[in-house]
Every structure is written in structure tokens, then in C-alpha cells.
Design brief:
Blueprint lengths: L2 H31 L3 H29 L3 H9 L6 H13 L13
Helix pairs in contact: 1-2, 1-4, 2-3
Pfam family, one: DUF3817
Protein name: DUF3817 domain-containing protein
Membrane topology: Multi-pass membrane protein
Length: about 110
Amino acid sequence: MKRSVLTRYRAMAYLTAVMLLILCACMVAKYGFDTGAGLTLVVSQIHGVLFMVYLVFAFDLSSKAKWSFGKMIWVMVSGTIPLAAFFVEHKVRAEVEPLIEGSPVTATA
């Protein structure tokens, strides 16, 4: 597996997670304080497009890492839960880096 597959996934995971947090703040402003309806619409559309790209990259990574269907779904769903994508991305990176071509093999005891 190439490093670029993991890099693309990581970039989209962070970007999607940040946009989801911004969207949550916009939703609080819109429904809690009755302001920012236009901004919420724009942010929600941007987040939706980024999330679709995230799903494609997560699927690509999961197929190349040969994950089970359940794990693939969990990684994809983590992009819909605020803050979850940050933690899942960290675990995915730790798991996938040894699979990347040219990575030094670590010895296990």
C-alpha cells in the first residue's frame, strides 16, 4: 500500500472533523440564538461535499488494508460524530503505517 492512500485519508478525516465542529457551532447559533441561517447553509453544504470525499478515501483505504465490513463502516460513520474522527484517525494511522511499503518492520515480543 502506498503512503499517499493513508495521507489522503488523514487529510480528509481532519478536514471533515473540523468542518463538522464548525457546523455544530453554526447549528447552535442558528437554533439557539436565531442567527446565522445563511452561514449554516453554506457550511452544511461544504461539509456534505467533504464528507462524500472522506467516504471515498475511507473506502479506498479500507479495501487496501483489507478490513472487515464492520470496521470499514465504523471508520466511515466516525465522520458523522463530532470529535470521533480525530480519535479514529489516530487509531487507523497506528494500524496502517506498518502496512505501508518501505516501512520498517517492528519486532513484537
